[in-house]
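ingest -> validate -> predict -> emit
validate: passed (alphabet ok, no gaps, 472 aa)
predict: started
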Amino acid sequence: MPLLPQSLFGRLLLFLAGGLIVTQLASVGILLQDREQALYHTIGGHVAQRIGAIVNLLDSLQKTERPRWAGALDLPPTRLTLDLPWQTELAPDERYHTTLFRALLRRQLGSDRVFQLAIDDELPPPPPPRDRPRWLNSDRTEPSPGRADRPPRWRAHAMALGLRNFIVQVRLRDGETATFQQVLPEEVIAWPARLLLILLVLIVSVALLAGLAVRALTRPLAVLAAAAAELGRDIRRPPLEEAGPLEVRHAARAFNTMQERLIRYIEDRNRILAAVSHDLKTPITRLRLRAELLDDISLKEKFLGDLDDMQRMAQASLDFLRGGEDSEPIAAVDLNALLESLQEDAEEAGQTVGIDGVAHQPLRCRPLALKRCLTNLLDNALKYGQQAELAVEDTPSRVKLMVRDHGPGIPDSELERVFEPFYRLERSRSRDTGGTGLGLSIARNVARAHGGELRLRNRPQEGLEAVLELPR
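emit:
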């Protein structure tokens, strides 16, 4: 999936944080729903109790006294009107909030009382307060600014909680209609900011702890990957510290064991190479001495030529096998001086080598191995391209060395095959037409032993280009 993070840390953090956020949002939804139910029970019960008390009071009054008392009881947020007719257009509503409030009203008004209830977003705001006697006009009886005077703002909160403006019409004992219209105060139906802030702090805290936990779990993998990458450049690097959780200690112990076995294998191979080199040189030297005793000049030259081929092939094979070893210590090498020495050697042999670009700082490498790699590349370029050019591109992280020639190039299908040991485009293996077919193999082994890479590519204009990339 392209949208997923590429690192294990990113994916684990995404899954944990995503699951945490979804869980917390679901918890918030359930909590707000429970809060809504509790608020509706509390507010609905209080409003139903007040309406029941007012209805009982109006029933006990004479009809002529009711307007005065209705004016005194017409206080926000519960508004009371006696002169409104019975509204037949109030349709029954069987939603949860309506059913609950109807049950609360039935409990306060009695089962024989006739009333109707409507809860709707489209109900008009409560009527303005009528003129009252002077003794009723006080600050506590006036509508509070920001409540009934601003219905659009609180209506969104009320809709979110399911608490809305509602109308209740009750039949008094003598047939008169009492109309109650309720507007919930904004602070009651507003979102619980403190609770939401606590949940936000909880989400952030748990997310940070999850990030730290994921980092602690994935860090050993990053250390192991870095050690494996460094192992390709330095087989004798310090072993990993066997610490941390059980699985991490097991992985570090297995890595250290693998490193020890590789070191023993390389040491055994080096001893075998030294023995083979000695055992091959001794019979070749004896044969060369015996060939010098031959009287037939033509036969003598043939023997010496075959011996030269044998010695060259044996030496090339040993160099190839030594290409990946790291017995040579790593040192800081002045690349500019190394390239200039290769240029001078070629010029002394009557060949032309140009240098383009400079290295800005020394490169830590195995000097003799790197020189052998560049010498093989230059020999190929000069043999098949008559002249060669060395180009340098230096960056803080890598050094790129390009060896270019002006020869015929190589078919694209053969660009990788020429790195195979003993593989040559010219199959005769004559000493007049080429070497043993190990030069490029040795060069690539040296490059990879340094943690770099060597590749070939045909130049657009003419010739072949060998690109050697080495890390700093």
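The longest helix spans residues 8-60.
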